[in-house]
Amino acid sequence: MTSVFAIHGLRKSYGGNEVVAGLDLDVERGTCFGILGPNGAGKTTTLKLCLGLIKPDAGTIKVLGHDVSEQARVARQRIGVVPQMDNLDPDFTVTENLQVYGRYFGLSDAQTRERIPALLEFANLTPKADARIQALSGGMKRRLTLARSLINDPDLIILDEPTTGLDPQARHMIWERLRQLVAQGKTLILTTHFMEEAERLCTRLAVIDHGKKIAEGSPRELINTHIEPEVVEVYGDGVEAWANERAASLSERVEKSGETVFCYTHDASGLANDLAHHATLRSLRRPANLEDVFIKLTGRELRD
Amino acid sequence: MTLDLRLPKVSARFIPVWRRNFLVWKKLAGASILGNIADPMIALVAFGYGLGSLLPQVDGVPYIQFLAAGTVCMSAMNAATFEAMYSAFSRMHVQRTWDGIMNAPVDLDDVLLGELVWAATKSFMSGLAIMLVVWALGLANGWTSVLILPTVLLIGLAFAGLGLIINALARGYDFFQYYFTLVITPMAFMSGVFFPTAQLPAWLQAVGQVLPLTHAIELARPLLLGKVPATPLLNIAVLIAYALAGAYVSTVLTRRRLLA
What we know:
By secondary structure, chain A is an alpha/beta fold.
């Protein structure tokens, strides 16, 4: 049995609103599993349930062989968590943050002192060892939060939107570190709504919406099974008229979003030829990606 | 919503929570000592000597001696209350420190016990500092005044529990002002901090008898003067009851707030 994380029939309601509505997930050891969903899909609630911080209305949760309803604390001893919002201790230095956090796991100060240099190295924060938290950039804080989640040398790391709010450079650095962790044999579960993040990092993905799983597979499988392989995005003067007259006959599926028309098809050469005769239209022909799948499955309307 | 009414689960994991707060305090001790201790000491000396010189003896002792026991108890009450509300609220709601702690193998019950004991610790430090001044000024008669220190710890636990209840209900810092204005300040006047409760109308004296600060002062004042309190077991029992009830109710309410 290589499953390190298994939830079945998970349900949680708040005031009649079912936030998690019968969710099943299975995560294999040594993989990076992505939970994808729009805001309010139930991602964070699911993670809180799995840590035993809130109680489910129904369903079972087994993490690292422990039934979370009985043994959440034992399970958490082997889990690292990177929360959505940084909650580093602002009164402490970088090193003190790691030291104090280690104590919550029952680690002696001698044990954490031994681990801290490698963790600072991993997070690229060695020169900042004695810096105050206020002196760190957003990317540094995120890396410190990641280092903090590793203080107990966990088997499973749960990351709730680990790169939200970071600039591209900082994001790439986090991704690189996360790949290192998977290479070391750790299991990662992360929530995200960055498709690029999911596509680059995750071995397997589950798309959830309204508390239910609506698709699951590797990023490639999801693209192959849920969407036409080619996309042509069309915009510019006269796009409305063109869409009404031409788009439907030349593509398998057409969607409008704002001033852009998205044409999905198995072969875009017909569309390309047609567009060559419309000088006012601008277009982009590209292979379908995970974002197209995500939008198809969860819709285009705004989620707040 | 159903309440989780189980008794708090006590474990040694509250100790790292206490140590975290202690480490922060150590780093910021200067300002903290000034605020919590200098203030009541100045009031004691100013009112004790200034106002005291205008007064005949109060309850058979110079006013400053009468006021000393009240000041120790009141500042212990204030220190625990402040820590369990403003400071705990920052850690719970603003900085999300508790969320971080609870992602580790530490439960909310441990966090609350750590906060309770920490608030009582601050209260003890504040009471101890004022007692040092009281001793230095020669305001205490006899060794019994040492027993004020364990009394101060009980005051700390009782008011920390009450403060954590208010903390569990607070929407923001403003909420705490109601508690100070409507509960803590009147309590100081009804419990005999500044003048003997015998000066109050009978019905107010009756209300005062259920307040924890009254029982704290009924212990501390005679101990400071080298006398045996009249009803020590009752006073201790009331303070312990407040501490236990506060710990329990605050745990149930904070579970509802954070774990539902």
